[in-house]
Amino acid sequence: MLLRPDPDPIRVSERFRHTLESTILELEAGAARDERILPLLEDEDHRRRQRLLVAAQLERAFRLRDLLARTARQPERNRLTVQPY
């Protein structure tokens, strides 16, 4: 199987990049919080579902980090100002 070289980076705005970063941090914080709850759960099935939740949060954060690594900031456009007559 031939591996293709990395494509050009995905150009994103600063706002979109910030949204990605915030989402990643929220997912990781949620996973850590949910993992701390595990020892408090008595039912084994509940613990299993909680572990699945943590794994899903970390997987989503990992995928978003991978996406973030493939992005490049799009240069801001010069905003034209309209001069009154």
3D structure, described in words:
The protein has helices at 14-37, 44-69; strands spanning 10-12, 71-73. It starts with 9 loop residues before the first strand and ends in a 12-residue tail after the last strand. It is elongated, with a radius of gyration of 20 Å. It has one domain. Helix content is 59%, strand content 7%. It is built from 2 helices and 2 strands; from the N terminus they run E-H-H-E. The longest helix is centred in the middle third of the chain and has 26 residues, at 44-69.
Features:
single chain, 85 residues, mainly alpha, two-stranded parallel sheet, elongated
Please specify the SSE layout and strand pairing.
Blueprint: E1 10-12, H1 14-37, H2 44-69, E2 71-73
Parallel strand pairs: 1-2
What overall geometry do the principal axes of the alpha carbons give? elongated
Distance between the termini: 64 Å
The tally of helices reads: 2
Q: Roughly what is the average pLDDT, rounded to an integer? A: 87
Number of domains: 1
Summarize the structure.
The protein is mainly alpha-helical and 85 residues long. 59% of the residues lie in helices and 7% in strands.
